[in-house]
């Protein structure tokens, strides 16, 4: 094939290389929640129990890489390839592809990405008329853990966890867990509120801790990054055009835990780490002594573009995976293969 010729066996791009939009994202996930819980629950039985579960892996995330850069995440989304795979996002950075799938999500976060219980379906908070707290005031477990009111926020629960010196020890762990899940992993609105279904799952804390929260969070995350099948409860005629339109808007809402895509970029594109405006360190959330993450800016778009244009740029398209022991970890029973992706993977395997 002639140099610079278009290889039609490869996936098409969402945008042409000189037509990437540069707008902002509304990201409601709050990683600072982890620093808060590390501080408030330090050395407590509740924190030790969380730490022994897969959710405890979140406290090993590197603090230097956590300030969310919507510019970096928007850039990766805009550079995505059009692939007929519901649960995989392929982006291109420089000249190399980069895969973001449930396997990468689980490797980066350490969360349980095993199979969901039979019959379980992740709630879609984006559907028309969705109400996370419908009927909550009538639920006995909600009243015991959350309180009497159905309009309570995650901020309210965090305030109570921090300041209620008379709180029963048994209540601290379910409050902390719902704060993590609804305040960071599965977010859909600027004001975080507990989800009734998740509160009901706290009837058995051990079962809650063993739930595949990585898979649940990833579904909410990838759903808004890929061409959408539905919009405001209605089927979408042209999902690709709608995603292009959304990315061209002044702002675009992301749900779930989009920080995972940023953390993947820092792992797969090491040069990006040199552009983080903070001193080099190996600090994790577990190392923090204060209730907040370090206060430094996130990586800027100019820095992202400088790295992308660097002639010595190296990208790892498929990062080494750290698989969990759970059945169906990182796998989907209904994920399709796509010939153009297979061809692209073969090219990279042959050092093209």
Overall description:
With 352 residues, the protein is mainly alpha-helical. The protein has one domain (24-349). The chain has 14 helices and 6 strands. It has helices at residues 32-40, 45-51, 70-78, 102-109, 140-145, 154-163, 169-185, 196-201, 205-210, 213-223, 239-248, 259-268, 301-309, 339-349, and strands spanning 24-27, 88-93, 96-101, 230-231, 234-235, 251-254. The strands form 3 sheets. The protein has a two-stranded parallel ribbon with strand order 1-6. A hairpin with a 2-residue loop joins strand 4 and strand 5. Helix 4 crosses helix 12 (259-268) and helix 6 (154-163) runs antiparallel to helix 7 (169-185).
Give me some keywords for this one.
6 strands; 14 helices; two-stranded antiparallel ribbon; 7% strand; two-stranded parallel ribbon; mainly alpha; 352 residues
Give the helices and strands, then pairings.
Layout: E1 24-27, H1 32-40, H2 45-51, H3 70-78, E2 88-93, E3 96-101, H4 102-109, H5 140-145, H6 154-163, H7 169-185, H8 196-201, H9 205-210, H10 213-223, E4 230-231, E5 234-235, H11 239-248, E6 251-254, H12 259-268, H13 301-309, H14 339-349
Parallel strand pairs: 1-6
Antiparallel strand pairs: 2-3, 4-5
Helix pairs in contact: 2-7, 4-12, 6-7
Organism: Brassica oleracea var. oleracea
Domain DUF1985: 77-223
Protein name: DUF1985 domain-containing protein
Number of E strands: 6
The coarse silhouette is globular
Mean pLDDT: 93
Radius of gyration: 21 Å
How do the helices and strands follow one another from N- to C-terminus? Answer: EHHHEEHHHHHHHEEHEHHH
Structural class: mainly alpha
Number of helices: 14
Q: Give the neighbour order of strands across the main sheet.
A: 1-6
Relative helix content: 25-40%
The description of the largest β-sheet is: 2 strands, parallel
Residue share in β-strands: 5-15%
Alpha-carbon distance between the termini? Answer: 13 Å
Number of domains: 1
